[in-house]
Request: fold
Amino acid sequence: MKPVEVAQSYDAIASQWSGEDFNRANGIEEHRKALQFLDRTGRALDVGCGSSGRFIKLLLERGFYVEGLDISAEMIRLARERHPQVPFHQADVCDWQPQDQYDFISAWDSVWHVPLGAQEAVWRKLLNALAPDGVLILTTGGLDESGEVQNNAMGVSMYHATPGLPALTRLIDDCGCVIRHLDYDQWPEKHLVVVVQRL
Reply:
């Protein structure tokens, strides 16, 4: 599944993330935990920000200057309605290039939609965009090996992939970063949360 097709799928369901029924607590405690490893505010980036704005709200409340990035035009439109003061970039993370370093990056349930063959380059890009001591929180499929799947579990066709935990940990080390926290937060589902800090 190509990124443009992922964008079309999210365009079709974007309102689900900004509606009253959406669980706005999803991922918040994990972000608070990740922020404990950072002793400052600064610039923050929400990769695959979607339309809920919940992580952006948390980061703004903490005093960060925040940017959002999403491939879905409809997600970005709804996100701008919620946070008109925040700069949003509608782009494919595979093509997008950071213009600055970030003190905090969130990549919650987002990069796993990137084609498996492009994930290493995307993770390198994000890890290298961290400022010294900067923190990245990410989610991925917590498998021992790489894998990819396409299904309609969200009501539209959607693609997910993971490089696998061993490959991801090697990549994190190779980029001069260290894992500060790792959690299978929805066990027995293999939804893996990883908090990374640049050395």
The chain has one domain: 3-18+27-198. The first strand starts at residue 43 and ends at 47. The CA atoms of residues 117 and 163 lie 9 Å apart. The radius of gyration is 15 Å.
